[in-house]
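Subgroup meeting minutes
Present: P.N., E.W., G.H.
Scribe: E.W.

1. P.N. recapped why we're keeping a running log of single-chain structure predictions: easier to compare across weeks, and new members can see raw inputs and outputs side by side.
2. G.H. added today's entry (544 aa).
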Amino acid sequence: MAHFLTDVLEAFKKHPDLAIFKRLVLSDEREHKNWVSISYAECQNDIERAARHWHAALSAQGVASSDVVGLWLTGRHYADLLQIYGISRAGFVPQVFSVGFSSVDVVDELLRACNGKVLLYDPSFSDAVAAVGVPHLIIPAVNEMHVDNSRQPLPPLPEVKEDDMGMIFHTSGTTSGRPKPIPETHRWLKGQQMHWKGVTQGHFPEGQDVYNQLGSFAHLGSATLISHLSVWGQCAVQTSRADFDVEEFLALVKAAGLNRVFLYAPWLSRLIKFAKADPVVLETLQKMRQIIYTGASINPDDEAWMVAKDLPVTLLYATTEACLCLISHISEKDHLPAMRIISSVECEFIPTTQHIDASELTEGKVGSEETQLYELFIPAHSRNCPHPSVRNRPPEGHVTGDLFEEVTPGRYVFRGRNDDWIRTGKQICFCDTKSIEDNVLSVCSNLVRNCTVVGHNKPHIVLFVEPVVQPTSEADIAELRAQILELTAPFRERLFVHERIAAAEHIVVVPSGSLSRTKEKGNIRRKAVEDEFAEVLKSIYAVA
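Output recorded in log:
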């Protein structure tokens, strides 16, 4: 089959004069923001310049077509997109690492696990890369990539198979101290370009659709956004940070033409808070072509308020492995947070076979313990079924690990996960609580009898511990916390920032046996702990 970039580059040619990206320019004071438009033609030229540079440089290093090339990027610059797509256009497979990879050992391990031949790195990582065991080359600025086009013609894109790797990203959480590589196949990447049509709702013949960047350019969502947008002639605008504030939101609309806002649920909740008090923010939201939120459901009262104010809101469900799967419809706002399968996506809901304790669910209410819950299954023949190395139901396909309830025929509501993962941090990334708990119980076995990690949809995680010997004073509690932090430090250093117990104040010491357990197995009930200690957690997050 054709390389996934074939369709993207053909789309670039259809819209040469339209803007595909609006790059943020900050003043010296960093308060005044302006955006510079980059056309489809300019972007394609930039990609091809990077491709020619890397084809020459890496071929000289013995890197062959379809080899894996590591890219360690900050994810903060338009140039990062050019490096990712330039490596792809040169015929290689980019394996992308972000600034969140603070451990060079983890980068080295993951690169070797994917048989990476070389690591290209942003200058800001220069001090770290000496420990990488493969050849490593610094990434020059795009305007410093002086290539003679006549002497360095680009080779044609390689022919590929459906399940060949096109790009490699990683899970947003770690398992046993290491993220998991997620190869995106060519079939998968081409499928997302088509599925994006099911996300864009509402027809506006006048003017382009302009979306905001969603997070780092070194993460899957923003890194591949221009692939989706290019097919439909749309545009992306850069933000100063992932969780941009309300002032920047208004500037994005006024100065950059933002008309379809794409947010994680907690960020939308923050905008709603301002909109309830500020008619300008409310009117701006009402004039959006579409407001898409993802990552989790928001407060039901906020959902009801959005419906009452007639905001053009849709809820999207996607994962790193399966990407776009479910979405609500603007015309069905009264049914929020219920979603339907995107029309071009082939997936199905299958009843769970395991016993589900309703009190353990992390989202919403299910009515009773007898409520039927479903898993989302992606069959192997589906375009968005992940790479065979990722599938957890081989050879049939893959389940996402999330639970859903069918509230009306064909409409499903997210009801949490069926495992030990939660979403936490500023960008609502995954966190494997069990790995963290297991490490605490292992290295602190003489100090901690039992523990649990909480923090679903919160700025950071909090560790609750039942000690072996109950402290009798504040000084004893402080000493216990300090010992836990010291003993777990080697493991924490391998984790993403959002997965770390970052301060002694994020450890709560409780009496032995006091954490709520399930009746049958005696497992600590994570959600119940969050509910019972809500005031304690509120005080901790107040200073987050």
